[in-house]
Write a structure and sequence with these properties.
Blueprint lengths: L1 E3 L4 E6 L7 E8 L5 E7 L1 E3 L2 E7 L8 E8 L5 E9 L27
Parallel strand pairs: 1-8
Antiparallel strand pairs: 2-6, 3-4, 3-7, 5-6, 7-8
Length: about 110
């Protein structure tokens, strides 16, 4: 799963099935079903394919999207899930600062 911000240009590093220089990136909201498409130029960097996308300010905070990268002939070369947040990685917490402690008496049974 990838993590991106809500606005501006996003930089991606992925390992695609094929190396291509031009592709279409489709980002689809799992909440609304709305799709955003951007044509990108992909560069190879060691084992990764690097590209920048600009979806404007249309992405929602704390939302999940599916990302699909297609060659110009519509062949899918990459598919993944994206989580959109403006928090930095050091600030982000899945449980949103809520720690749930489970009580246990540590008993067990040996048969």
């Amino acid at each position: 799963m990838l993590t991106i911000g809500t606005n501006g240009i996003k930089t991606f590093k992925v390992i695609a099935r094929e190396n291509v220089s031009n592709a279409n990136v489709i980002l689809k909201s799992e909440t609304t079903g709305e799709s955003f498409t951007d044509s990108v130029t992909i560069t190879e960097s060691k084992y990764y394919n690097d590209f920048d996308c600009d979806f404007g300010t249309t992405l929602d905070e704390s939302s999940f999207y599916t990302i699909t990268i297609k060659k110009t002939d519509d062949t899918i070369i990459y598919k993944d899930k994206v989580f959109c947040t403006d928090q930095t990685l050091s600030e982000f917490s899945v449980n949103d600062n809520t720690y749930i402690e489970h009580s246990s008496n540590n008993e067990f049974i040996i048969i």
